[in-house]
Structure prediction request, 280 residues.
Amino acid sequence: MRFFLRGARAARFTQAAKAAVLVAAMLLAACAAAPARNPLATWVPSPNFGERRAQLIVLHFTDEDSAQNSLKTLRTGNSGGPVSAHYLIGGDGHIYQLVADSMRAWHAGEGSWGTITDVNSASIGIELDNDGHSPFAQAQIGSLLRLLTDLTDRLHIPRTQIVGHEDFAPTRKNDPGPLFPWKQLADAGFGLWPQGPLIDPLPGFDPWMALRLIGYPPDDHAAVVRAFHHHYRGMDGEALDAQDLRILYALTRQLLPVRPASPPPFSSPPSSLQPSSPPR
Ligand SMILES: [Zn+2]
Prediction:
């Protein structure tokens, strides 16, 4: 009997301990979901806020041999530590989401694009299941175009703001590489792509300034040209040629539209052109 009572007490104690652990876990989960509040300030919440929005979309290849292996890596890590991306698109076109659009995934690493120096904080990362030297499947590109349409519409990301990992990290990365169909994306309205006939630039045109204007970082010139060649020429090569200059000139003119000719020096307009009353 005595032994029985001890057993019943032990059972009650075990149940109470389980309940305490459950409550603690629920509290921890609630804390994890609660907004961070600064203990230095009095919390006076306002309802007028929204989720932060990305400004850039970054495309990668996984450099792995299957979507399942890539999913495993993107949910654990690689040799450099924990990694992730917002989306993975399989070769069959299946779209997986791993991180919410409003959260910061770990896909970009060091690098800069234009004035963006923390690319992870400013971007959506999309991984494409590809081994790095095979053509991208059309089903995969079709799904990518649907996803880009959704993201640019829903998150208000400009359609030109789509770059490859190597574009902003040219000394470290080579994805999505020269086989990625940037022209097909451009034909669907995505990315920055030269429009109209390509012409020779005017004398004095500075291609390195043009690359900076597009967004390329001021890194090693050979690495930047290699990334530019992958993106705009679908080829390797570390030295600029005449066609590169024409492409850069076209892109520069698209980013900096030519202004109308300067008006003649100021002189008093004829009385018939002078306003009869002050402009409002
Ligand atoms: Zn990458």
Q: What stands out?
A: The CA atoms of residues 73 and 79 lie 10 Å apart. The chain has a mean pLDDT of 86. The longest strand covers residues 56-61.
